[in-house]
Write a structure and sequence with these properties.
CATH superfamily: SET domain
Strand content: 25-35%
Shape: globular
InterPro entries: SET7_MeTrfase, SET_dom, SET_dom_sf
Strand order of the largest sheet: 4-5-3-8-7
Number of domains: 1
CATH topology: Beta-clip-like
Structural class: mainly beta
Domain SET: 1-111
Radius of gyration: 14 Å
Distance between the termini: 28 Å
Organism: Metabacillus fastidiosus
Pfam families: SET
Protein name: SET domain-containing protein
Largest sheet: 5 strands, antiparallel
Length: 130
């Protein structure tokens, strides 16, 4: 259903993104990303690494590094996907927020809620927001 390809949106060192291999219907489960959770007080160690830009909030007292394709979704303030934290399964579950066409990059809002336009920790202009 999804693959990793070079993204024009990513300005990081690796320039990767998640793309649809086939059409994906709104509401369809795209990916279940397992997590490695750690207490927030340990985040000071993660901040010294490249992983700091890829950590997600995981409840009130923890942060998490996502495995699988989880940390490769790029950001948009007009996302076509969203995610829910599944604490029972220890996964982040990514769903299509809109219909997604084959070949389209799958984008999430890094703020969590699809309509949250709060500034992010990096100064990147999102091509979809122009």
């Amino acid at each position: 259903m999804i693959e990793i390809k070079t993204s024009k949106l990513s300005n990081g060192e690796f320039n990767r993104g998640v793309f649809a291999i086939r059409d994906i219907k709104k509401g369809e489960l795209i990916h279940e990303a397992p997590v490695i959770a750690y207490p927030n007080e340990e985040h000071v160690f993660i901040e010294k690494t490249l992983l700091a830009d890829y950590a997600f909030e995981y409840g009130i007292n923890h942060s998490a590094i996502l495995l699988g394709y989880g940390m490769l979704f790029n950001h948009s303030y007009t996302p076509n996907a969203t995610y829910d934290i599944n604490f029972e399964n220890h996964t982040f579950d990514f769903f299509a927020y809109t219909d997604i066409k084959a070949g389209e990059e799958i984008l999430i809002n890094y703020n969590g809620a699809v309509d949250n336009n709060d500034p992010l920790w990096f100064n990147k202009t999102d091509e979809n927001d122009k």
